[in-house]
Amino acid sequence: MARRRRRALLILAAVAGTMFAAGAASANVPASARLAHPTAPQTGGTVAVVSPGQPDIPPAGAARPGVSGAPRTPARSTNWSGYAVARGAGAYRSVSASWVEPAATCHAGGGARYAAFWVGLDGYHSSSVEQAGTDSDCQGRTADYYGWYEMYPDRAIRLAARVRPGDQVSASVTFGGRRTYRLVLTDRTRRWTRVIVKNEAGLARSSAEVITEAPSSRSGVLALADFGTIRFTAPRVNGAALGRVAPVRIVMTDGSGRDKDRTSPIGPAGAFSNVWLRSN
Predict the structure, then answer these.
(1) pLDDT, position 26
(2) Positive/negative CA dihedral, 224, 225, 227, 231
(3) Domain range spanning residue 14?
(4) Do 216 and 257 lie in a common domain?
(5) CA distance 243 to 268
(6) Which one, 25, 140, 160, 169, has least CB within 10 Å?
């Protein structure tokens, strides 16, 4: 009897030790890696895996035109569509635009799909992006809408304020001098504004853009959500209408070179549209 009792105690001790070790290992894992849904942005926190805004990712072997004027043919990108202007370092200090938040069409069995809409400085020829915008995403049949800002390569921050399809949204990014950036996102329909001030030195400010994006994760560019049509209005760069500063038109393409959405011509006032064509 004593031998059986001793054996039972040894088994219990071993189980307890395993549970303690597992708990200790979990405690050493960053919180973002332990999220139940690691690809979903957390309200008021960081995006764990999915980044709604990243620098432009050209197709393999593609050059980046537009440093001295708009080319006749559009630039191709695997994750961006819209318009950008690009010059030398320090050329851009502000960018802004407005849009109506598009409704995402989500399908059962469609998996996770994402679409981001934003304005920003940098990212066309540089590895940083200072940006603010919104997302219309799908998790299966469930649509998710939210505002965010990002000082890439830092993680994007999801804003707690509510965003719904049909909302009138505007965003701006402004360099205030020395190292200060002011990022503003406003939902006029819901009557809220978020102002974020960031201090960061050494950023290029060599481009400015108004973009529809297929967000990315560590595995690469993700499937583009069916956002229908988005129309950007009143886009301005350094205080001038985007259409008057020789912007580069950007078209998003998949791995086979097929267009994932369509970027309309831009008028003198700068308004243009992106129309969804395919997810990937």
Answers:
(1) 31
(2) negative
(3) 1-34
(4) yes
(5) 5
(6) 25
